[in-house]
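User: Continuing from earlier, I have the next pair ready.

Assistant: Great, send them over.

User: Here they are, in order.

Assistant: Folding the first of the pair now:
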Amino acid sequence: MKKFYSLIAAVALTATVNAQTTVVNETFTFTGALNANGWTTHSGTAGQLQSNGSQAVLVAGNSEDVNKAFSTSYPLTNKAEYSATINVSTATGLSTSGDYFLMFGGTAGTTVTTFYGRLYIKGSATGYTLGILNNSGGTATPTYGTEIAYGTPANILVTYNAANIATLKIDGQPLLINSTGTSAVATNLASIAIRQAGNATSGTGAVSIDDLIARTYTGTLSVLDPSKTKANLVKNTIVGNEIIFGAAANVSIYNAAGQMVKTAEVSENSRLDVSALPKGNYIVTGLVKGQAVSQKIIKK
């Protein structure tokens, strides 16, 4: 049960923000290679990754990975986030099982080997799906959203915090939360990185990236007072087949092993069917009025 109660502590964390700093602001308004315009190649064939004057465009089968150093290296005491507009026009080169293409780097320059807050993508015949992974190690499994039609841009916001938890918000989709990677939490974040992987038929495909901004936050993470917040999320802590919610939120449900088993967007006084979940202890997490809230439930 130790892992379960560690999860309770982790998902109850929220940031006490003293200040935010924009450490990368990339609009890709140049034409040509990224590594000739403020980015550094750290893997693959240098010069492959290009900007067309408005966005960076990955090419299926290319191998170059690049990073852009933060204006100031960030010791991870709170959280960092990056936002961007993502688009994919066709299924060409996209993996059906998923691969990651955008992330924070633990270092910057020609050697970058540790990555956090990894943004994943996979494709089907009709559209692309984005997902999030906090870190590597253990049974690291990305958490995916819902499919987006090819040619439709997606505005994304990824956060990674000092509790080794990553989140992904995609336009109006429910908030995704991932903590399945068990490698050590980052001590420093120093860059934003773009990765091209796989081959011409299965990999990161032909993704475009625009308006890429990274921010860091000072201060330390602190635990919310559950007596003031938890009652606002779930009304019934002993659950049969439905959870009754006391507030509108994007929620995620975790089992005792720390695995996310269900996500949903709920409204005040709505009911969520959890009849398919086995009996046991679970944690329900969500954002209520901008605060991260968690509550333990027992399914009978």
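And the other member of the pair:
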Amino acid sequence: MNLILGKQYGGIGDTGIQCLSNALRENKTLIMLDLSYNRISDIAVQYLADALRNNQTLITLDLTANRIENNGLQYLANALTDNKTLIHLKLKENLGSYSTFIGSIIEFRKDKTLNTIKFEQKQIGDNEARFLADEFRNNNTITELNLSYNEIDDSGAQYTVDALKNSKVLTILNLSYNKITNDGIQYLNETLKQNNTLVQLELQGNPSSYFTAVSAAVQIRNDKTITKMDLKDKSIGDSEIKFVSEALHNNESSSMLTKLYGDQVNVIGDEGAKYFADALKTNKVKYLL
């Protein structure tokens, strides 16, 4: 059974949704409900979420272009945690910024075969990153997470990496073209020392001089298949080379990295050279070019 009360109706508000929600609690046949282009607010969406919390038939819910803000969107996502049937939740053109990704979260919860999450260009900032971090904290299926081209700064990066640091399956994390500074990048590096599976950390396009060195450090620590690494012309100085040196120093003997490329375009001084020399004493790198 499909019920379409969107677009051409356009006038359903909180009272109407409360009445509809009461009827939905006992419904056993509805599989699609279209409430797009109405006047549904945070209050009304709570009525709806409570009614659908244990629903066992609804597959598609369309709430496009209503007046739902982040509080209502978060309530909806939390209420639907135990729902086993809803797969498609449409929330575009609502007032809350969470509307850009909560529908994908619902789909991800239900489909355990999904291992790649792409949330690039979703206007995700620190609050949104914190919400997503709670979703991903105990996840054991995500192998690739793309959060590039968003508004994540140091706090958002911390939420994200704290949630994913113990992941046993994540291999690719893309945080490129956000607003993460040196402090946030340094936090990522320290926290991810606990992680043994992440081999690709994308950080380019952030306002930080550390992004190349920390990406390299993560790969050196965890990728046992690389045989060479090119760090030429990356504006790497003493502070940046310290990240690479620490990774080389602590790298397991099983790594295949034997060639590391660099040149005079980088700005490594005496201090950086000492970091590097100390690291190479205990590493398998044979060629420094």
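Worth noting for the second one:
The longest helix spans residues 211-222. The radius of gyration is 24 Å.
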